[in-house]
Amino acid sequence: PVRFNALDADPRWQVIWAERGTFEADDASPKPKSYVLEMFPYPSGRIHMGHVRNYTMGDVLARYRRMTGHEVLHPMGWDAFGMPAENAAMEKGVHPGAWTRANIADMRTQLKRLGFALDWSRELATCEPDYYGQEQALFLDLFAHGLVYRKESAVNWDPVDHTVLANEQVIDGRGWRSGALVERRKLSQWFLRITDFADDLLAGLGDLDQWPAKVRTMQENWIGKSRGLKFRFDISDPLPGHETLEVFTTRPDTIFGASFAAIAADHPIAQALAANDPALVDFIAACKRTGTAAAEVETAEKLGFDTGLRVVHPFDPDWTLPLFVANFVLMEYGTGAVFGVPAHDQRDLDFARKYQLPVTRVVAASADLADAPVGDEADSAPGVLVQSRFLDGMTVEAGKAEVIARAEASCWGEGTTVWRLRDWGVSRQRYWGTPIPIVHCDACGVVPVPTEQLPVVLPEDVTFDVPGNPLDRHPTWKHVDCPACGAPARRETDTLDTFVDSSWYFIRFASQPDDKPFDKAVAEQWLPVGQYIGGVEHAILHLLYARFWTRALNRIGRLDVAEPFAGLFTQGMVTHETYSRTVEERTETGEVLTVPKWLSPDDIERRDEGVFETATGLAVTVGRVEKMSKSKKNTIDPGPIVDQYGADAVRWFMLSDSPPERDLPWSEAGIEGAWRLVQRVWRLTEPGAAGDGAAPKLERLRHRTIQGIADDIDALQFNKAVAKLFSFVAALEKAPAGPDRARAAETLILLVAPMVPHLAEEAWARLGRDGLVADAAWPAVDPAMLVDDQVTIAVQVNGKLRDTLTAAKDADKGALEAMAMASEKVIRVLDGATPRKIVVVPGRLVNIVA
Ligand code: ANZ
Ligand code: ZN
User: Fold this and answer.
1) CB of 344 closer than 6 A to ligand 1?
2) Using one digit for the tens of pLDDT, what is the confidence trace for 464-500?
3) What confidence tens digit (pLDDT) does each residue in 768-795 have?
4) How far apart are the first and last CA of the chain?
5) Which atom of ligand 1 is nearest to the CA of 340?
6) Is the predicted ipTM greater than 0.85, yes or no?
7) Is 630 annotated as a binding-site member?
8) How many CB atoms lie within 10 A of CB 168?
9) Which of 108, 712, 824, 839 pairs as cysteine with 720 (C-beta 3.0–4.6 A)?
10) Distance of CA 428 to the CA centre of its chain
11) How far is CA 45 from CA 89, 109, 399, 454, 464, in A?
């Protein structure tokens, strides 16, 4: 028999789908609507296996939903702004726009070769003015409603490159390009009021029952609602105007473990003291050199300056604590002042060890462990309070409540609800992003760009030869007349965080008019997204921002949708073995280190004696199976694999070997197995093909397979669906010619159509069917055929199980009694005795009383 020729068939069907607009979603369709979405890719230049797996899963669902009578929206676009394009501009001298658009063109071609059922008519790229201009309109609408504001906030400043760095550009406290120690600087920046929605974002998680529990927990922790206490220490020898020190804590229960108090370098008390203390001035300058990222503050060396002042313990007038200025206390958070409890907070412990302050345990697993020593790790585990006077024996939670109650009763503090969530800082001092549509005028202040002047388009003629924001140094772009008074004014040169772009793209997919961001009624027909699929790396920020943005649009009356994504699925990664050889490397200081040199799977060969580098013949170490990554060189490019095996085999492999939420190890054997399955299905669906075995239950199996695969796809259990197909294929291979076999072969084509659509179309056409299998209906199931008509009957002798029988479900008492008495095992046990009585419960059991 002739093989299925994917290289011939794939492009042919792809052209037919495109020409017919098969996958274009119709807003006006009367069918029930189904919105299937995979997280849109960043156009880095290459489609990788992770994309292939992600989009294949979404594609199976989208195609299946079409077959079950839904009008499906399954769009694709590009998350096209961001740093890598600017890095390419700096490194290779290409314009970020040219680089991005070329990458999009390449990746679109690569995606199309996989035959995804995408509505390309709705394709969008966030870097084009028709998208970001509408984003600017939304931003201004939020601004008009008070959900956008400007405030001073700290950024990472590279003193050599004279540029603001994103947190991920700060490596070990140094600028990624210059290597200079990063400083903390204050800049006026734009913020979105996500904290206004904190309660609602938290409460909404409770309704997201089609989200993974772990993602909901991650969001809950990120929002971080807890109870805290703000209270005032008396300063024992106060400065004029500073009689008390207000601190904030989320652990008031640990108050008897306090051994110091500390304030931020920017705290008014530190500033006041610095006026007469040059050493403190120097110390404050040193503090500013610690970056702003949370991780940075955690890991940077803890530095303190003893002010000589002391604060009085709120529960003991004779107990005073030293007051330090410390680099790990941030002015932006709480009150910019803390009390330190070394035994139970890592930063405080590091600090206390360095400055020889007492470490007192006040929480222990149980009361008798009050003396358990504290090593180098602070103990944040729950337990009971110890060495804490009136709190002794209480739980942490009870202790918190008790201290808050006493503070409030004596008026030295107030309980507060505290959120970990901060307002969302969206200003980026970069070129390749959405320009913030604001003008700064000396007379009028902050002036929004009038809607009719949108979009504010990025200038094309920019340079990347020097560090900093090209928009800032562009000769003309930022000089505009004030929209309010006409005087010369300056454009805002910050651009928006790219997470803003991805916070509403799914709405724009649903409705894409030219003159506004989206049409409310049309968007609401599609939303929420029924099934969203993507990587767990976006479990927090992207999903939280999109949930916030949807609520913000709701509040300003633009969209009546509560949650953007009804169902969420986070897929596992595609992994591969790693290969390396150790090489010697000389460091700057002349030291010789042995380091792994990672090798690509293309550069190695397997022989009986082991694995070797092809070029050198040297032995290669086969390392752990890890996520495919450029740095470990263990990637497999989907392009050549599709060339060799065709799109369907690749798609099938992506679905088969692992549950979709788990990692999928790439293997040659796996892709070959998928290819063989493609060929087996092709042979089976050849008109007139037949096996020579017996297949009495084929019709029953057919119905059960249809139902089983439908259930599996609905539950996104694609590997289970493939396993069921395997059994069905095996049964069909034995089935003799006849109407049952013909019907089963046709069903097989329909069942595989969502997974291997090119093969299915080709086989469908070969059967002489009209129309596309993509437009065909999912095969019907006869529920009667799913009911098992066989039951298992327990056979007991004197109440003891001796045998089990398979009988027809409706077999009567006489038939069951006869079958039981004929059982070899029963005959042996009875050993010739005549039963005194036989009890038969039809459908269940036969008990023989001897
Ligand atoms: C005493 C204490 C004891 C604390 C203990 C923690 C553990 P989260 O939970 O992240 O909100 N803190 C308060 N303001 C701060 C600031 N401006 N800069 C740095 N740290 C600050 O953190 C709240 C805790 O962080 C607060 O509770 C405070 O330390 C510290 F076993 O107070 B805690
Ligand atoms: Zn003005």
Assistant:
1) yes
2) 988 889 999 999 999 999 999 999 999 999 999 999 9
3) 999 999 999 999 999 888 887 778 899 9
4) 63
5) 1
6) yes
7) yes
8) 9
9) 712
10) 23
11) 14, 11, 56, 30, 21
